[in-house]
Amino acid sequence: MTTSKGIANPCSLDKLTVHELKLYLRDRGAHVSGNKSELIKRAQVFVNLRMRTQQEIQTDDKENDNKRHAEIFCTPFGEKIPEPWTLNVLWVCDLTHAPLFRTEDLYNYLLLLSMITIFI
Q1: pLDDT in tens, 29-66
Q2: Which domains does the chain have, with CATH numbers?
Q3: Which Gene3D superfamilies match (predicted)?
């Protein structure tokens, strides 16, 4: 059907039925009420602007979104970075998986950290 593919020649709008004009306008998100002359004027604007259908726009948006998603989670060297929402699978809220350390290690860490901040 010509309404879903688009109309190349604006003069061919007169040959379309009211139903076909309404389908053409509905595919582009326009109002479909009115008589044939109003529908032709409205469709003329979309033909002149070469307006795509909403389905074509949504398909392009999904493709661009997928492409951008692939670019975001990839390093400049081509390595894949995991999505942030997948990292919470191994997340725990307690210290059961914390590395073992002695009290002396903690003391040295805190003391050396304070010494470094004093000299900076």
Answers
A1: 899 999 999 999 999 998 888 888 889 999 999 999 98
A2: 2-65 (1.10.720)
A3: SAP domain
